[in-house]
Design goal:
The protein has about 270 residues and is an alpha+beta fold. About 30% of the residues are buried. It has helices at about 10-25, 35-45, 50-55, 60-70, 90-105, 110-120, 125-130, 135-150, 170-180, 230-240, and strands spanning about 155-165, 180-185, 190-195, 205-210, 220-225, 240-245, 255-260, 265-270. It is built from ten helices and eight strands. The two termini are about 20 Å apart. Helix 3 packs across helix 6 (about 110-120) and helix 5 (about 90-105) crosses helix 6 (about 110-120). The protein has an eight-stranded mixed β-sheet, with helices on one face.
């Protein structure tokens, strides 16, 4: 099980932490540090934290190289197998992110909160790397506020067309070839997001089903990405949507709604 927090994590924050754990394990490190977390944010790509850094004019590729150079030497005594979450050090990183979420008045922990949490100690290894690029906790906070206030992020937008499928590997191969799309990261537990390399087309997500389709309910739905999930769910309910009695897994970052004709869709915290 993951580290428990008072606030839920967005899907991108979860993905960034998972990638950070992979990076730590690959280097033989048994404790998750700010350097691993920052590299996880960079590897996750196209998230608000990186958007804030780009607004500040940061060269993300050079930042990545400097963060990797600052990692401690590989510990060959560490176990080669992946350490299940939470890793040592993870709780402290999440506590700092949760504090930044509270400061910004959010009801969730997102990638921008992880970034701001990493920069609270500017004398830490990760803080010193960012400082060498001209990023302080204050400039990062300003970048995040600019990003959240800017018109580039609509309050609600189609994030992905989601297709349930029983033959996951076969469908992944088919749609990748049919559209020329690429996976944004390796499939995780039977779920993958395929993206247009040119950035022009909508995302297509494949979600593995343990059984073949039965009944009349469709296997295709929309994922709507929301900046403020609670406010958007309330607005959509006022427009005529209804909450669907879905069996949610712990820590789910989505809400399932039905439109006026009963078509299901999800509102996902961006």
């Amino acid at each position: 099980m993951g580290t428990r927090t008072r606030l839920p994590l967005t899907s991108r924050a979860k993905s960034s932490l998972s990638l950070a754990r992979d990076i730590a394990t690959a280097h033989g490190h048994v404790e998750l540090s700010g350097l691993h977390a920052a590299l996880g944010l960079l590897r996750e790509r196209n998230n608000p934290a990186l958007g804030a850094l780009e607004l500040l004019g940061i060269d993300l590729e050079k930042l990545r190289r400097d963060l990797e150079a600052a990692l401690p030497p590989r510990d060959h005594r560490a176990p080669a197998r992946h350490t299940p979450p939470p890793m040592p050090g993870e709780a402290e990183l999440l506590a700092a992110a949760e504090e930044q979420s509270d400061i910004l008045g959010a009801q969730y922990i997102a990638t921008e909160h992880l970034l701001l949490g990493l920069l609270q100690d500017e004398d830490s290894p990760v803080g010193r790397v960012f400082l060498s690029h001209g990023v302080t906790r204050d400039t990062a906070h300003a970048g995040v506020q600019r990003l959240l206030a800017g018109p580039a992020t609509p309050p609600l937008a189609i994030g992905s067309i989601v297709m349930r499928c029983h033959e996951f590997d076969r469908m992944l191969a088919f749609w990748s070839a049919a559209l020329g799309y690429v996976a944004d990261r390796p499939s995780d537990g039977g779920f993958v997001i395929l993206k247009d390399p040119a950035g022009a087309g909508p995302n297509l997500s494949l979600d593995r089903s343990p059984t073949r389709r039965e009944g009349r309910r469709g296997w295709i739905h929309l994922d709507l990405y929301a900046v403020d999930q609670g406010a958007e769910v309330q607005r959509l309910e006022q427009l005529g949507a209804a909450r669907y009695p879905w069996r949610y897994e712990p820590g789910a970052d989505y809400v399932v709604l039905a439109d006026p004709e009963g078509n299901l869709f999800c509102v996902v915290q961006r």
